[in-house]
Amino acid sequence: MKRVFGILTAIILLTGMFSATPDVHAADTTIEGHGLLGEFFNCERNPDNREDINVFNFDDFRGESTVENLNGDSFIGIFNELIGKPDYNTARFTGTIVPEYTEDYTFYMEGDDGFRLWINGELVIDFWEQKWEIEQSSAPISLEAGKHYDIKVEYLQGWGGSWLRMGWESASQEREIVPESALYLPLDHIISTQKDELSGEIGKIDYLMENFADKVNEGALNNLNTVKLTTQELLDTIDDKAISDREKADLLIDATENASIARSDFMKEMGVTSSSVHDKFNNPLYQGQDPFVTYKDGFYYFVSSSNLDSNNKIYVSKSRTLTDQGEKVMVFDSQGTQTRIFAPEIFFFDGKWYIYYCADLEDYDYRHMATVLESVTDDPQGEYVNKGALYTGEDGQYKQANDFTVLDYNGQLYAIWGTLGSGEPIGPAIAPMDNPYTITADRSIIGGGGEGPRILQRDGKVFIVVSEGDYQSNDYRLSYLMNKDGDILNKDSWTRTNDVFLSTDDVSGPARASFVKSADGTEDWMMYHSRVYKDTERNWWRQVNIKEFGWNEDGTPDFGEPVSPYEWQDLPSGDLGQGDMYQAEDAIHYGDITKDDSHANYQGTGYINLPNKSGAEASFVVNAEEKGDYIVGVRYAYGVQVDGESTSNPTTQLPARAKVNVYVNGAHVKTITPDKTAISWEEWFTASERLALKEGKNVISYRIDNDSIGNVNLDYLTMYKADVPNQIAPTVPATDLAMDSHAQVNVGKTLQLNATVEPANYTNKIIWTSDNPDVAVVNSAGMVTGKAAGTTTIKATIDGHEVSCELTVLNPVNVSSLEIMGEHGDSEIRTKGGTLQLSANVLPENATEKSVTWTIEEGGKYASISETGLVTAKGKGTVVVKAASVSNPDITDTFEVKIIGLDSVTVTVDESTLVRNQTIDLELNGKNNKNATVDLTKATVNYVSSNENVITVENGKIIAHNTGTAEVYADVTLNGYSVQSNKLKITVTTNIKSIQQLIDQYVDAGEIGHPLAKKLSNRLNQAEHQLVKGHINQAIKKMNDFLKHLNNDAMNKFITDKAKEILNKDADALIKSWE
């Protein structure tokens, strides 16, 4: 569409009545080849006038592609694929059309942009204009049932939206889009295509016979060879057969199918492809936006609308597993009376299903209105009735709405939606519902903003989860509003929490979440979308993800972070998954299929690439336990990058899809159209279809034919029996209900009422109501909130049982004063990390609200305080604590807490110069931050020597070892506080006696021989003798003689190097002390 809002005017162009000429053919219902052949042409825009109609011609042919019918699907993908641009192109569609009735038919066409229609060579609709969404109709045309009539449609695409819709109507034929079954491709195209496909079948038969003959018995091999010979003969002679082209087409189609079936029979004889059980998954799951899921009677149901504004359809999918949407069924087609159908949601109320959504309605001049569908039966995939627009306004005036959901609370339904339009208040808006399809009350405004409201409930709390930010950007995220007291329509009863679910490096724009329980009811899961092209600035193409979430201690949801596509997740509890899993790399491969493992997130040993080349085929031989319908899914990646699709601000609403034909036992049964995945090729989607299988072995093939679009990676195939639900827990009704008959609560306060239900394993919910919500309201968990003084009756009902409680609501008694007190009269904390519990004595004793708030007024770096008044020490200092009344914050008191601890330590010694082997006691003293002496008896003390070769410290004593100087200090820890003492300088010297002791030790150890020891001792005695006389110089001389003997090379044999080194050192030190 070229615009978002506006009034569309339908112009009916009558061309005069005529009858089709008799040059027609009887339709043969056995002929395949339904659809129309599309030829696509490039045009050049007039740079001076973009509305110049003369530029739209059919001169520059760029390619062809078949289409099923003209149903409003976008052509932009085809234009991009064949021409390389979405705008300023033309297309021509040809084939034949076959009516069901012999009657006068009227044709209807509408598009974006112009078009022309010929029936059997006659121009019946001519709207060759660059205009859009203006319906045209033909004059009545006489057609005969079962006859083929030539049809030609020409189409021009200017800029913007690109689609075309063709319908018909007669006396017996209800107005509808002309279906694919009534359209046939041109015969020359069918014959040419079928020749190519038949030739391809022969090549595939040759491949099987050449490579797998040893895998089957002789009979199977002979049967396949016979089919090959018959097929080849037909292909060689078909052009010379004296039959009509339609009969030739019939023969070729039958032969192609017979050859395909014969191949399947041969592959069955080869045996079943090995399989495993699907037991894990990763995100994303499949393409989609605004996902909504619900669970009932063993199945998940997903609801969605088309990706295209022009499609105007709603679909419901059904699956036993949350990891795949399963079978997708269209349940509503507005036939153009509604556009932009956004964000549908599905609910089950009172035995019927209801689908709510917002759309531009023709009846409201294409304004965006809330709308509801009601199911005819209890089948969510069955027929629906359009109940029309819902009243979402004020004073009887209908207002626009943007995204619509329903809250079922205590048996009352509430509608919640986003507001829309200039001058409208910021939503969400809310209103009670009379029934599931009627609102008569005016809206109330909750406010706060956000779009896409979704409901989450737990333990009486109600959450409206909204999405915020630019939906095409990385900034799209979740926030929520919360209601605790059950006063749903009161905006003051809602609080807001922002930014609870945000983008990560791997997941962009996670929002629009819906919520559901796991299959067994034990886990909470959320389903949300994210952007496929996460590295772009703005791109709306989105994908569906799921994750389990939890709950915080305060009862609020903890959504965590979006799960990375590189993280494998276990199945939800009780979820049966997607059944048997057959790896694509183990399938039978035809054509130019390649195996690969270079992209991440596959299962098994790798994956295959199904190339964009006719003849490529991956065939899986699977086993069905019984005959019937199965849900068969294929996991794929299709990351082809195209400008205008995977880039910022895309020019196409729908990226071009692939197109893969699905065969079962050789017969074509489906065509799947894989959506574009991330350009990394490392994020995978699943496409599932309902397929009918025989008991035992079946061959399921994914094939690229002439009209296919390939280059798709396949990871695996899954299958499980359709329509078999998950295990359903039995319903246990209540047999008895009891509750206290009287209770009271103050205004503004809450009180939890408890109802006792028998038996304990009951399954239905208790419904709580208040007879007078002006006095007190009650939430769905039985929590009452006093609103005004008075009395009301609170009722609890379940399974036909009802009990009542008379509730009295009292006015509050105000606080007059408060005083802070320390536990046991204390006001000090003497341990780091220690605590002191404070309390507030609030007066009067009967005050309604006696709670207080606690804060640190001064000294916050020294301590913290909890909500309950518990002070925890962090450091030494003085802290001033303040308590304030909650009901009257002006009433306060303060209290001083002193945090005391070890602050300094001093180490002393009687003398600081020692000789070798001397010991001396260290004395340790400590003081706290109040300068008071501290008892260090229980302290942890660690003495440190800067040089343990000189001195060490043991048990508070210094031990001198060798001459030199070292520092000693103490690291002391007491009650969590650590202090380092001062440093003492200790000198270790020597004397004659000490040197003689060394010599004696070395003699005993065998390190000095007696001859040398005797000489050294003599010189020491002489030095000592001179020293006693006071002859220092003579003493020094004797010590030098000592050194000469010590260092005489002739004496080396009597002394070790170590002993020699130490004695030299001590003698030198002694001499220096005398000089």
Automatic annotation (TrEMBL):
It holds the Pfam family FIMAH. GO terms for molecular function: carbohydrate binding; hydrolase activity, hydrolyzing O-glycosyl compounds; L-lactate dehydrogenase (NAD+) activity. Residues 31-182 form the PA14 domain. Residues 1-26 form the signal peptide. One of its GO terms (biological process) is carbohydrate metabolic process. It comes from the Bacteria. The keyword Transmembrane does not apply. InterPro entries: Big_2, CBM6, FIMAH_dom, Galactose-bd-like_sf, Glyco_hydro_43, Glyco_hydro_beta-prop_sf, Invasin/intimin_cell_adhesion, L-lactate_DH_AS. The keyword Hydrolase applies. Belongs to the glycosyl hydrolase 43 family. This is Beta-xylosidase. It comes from Virgibacillus phasianinus.
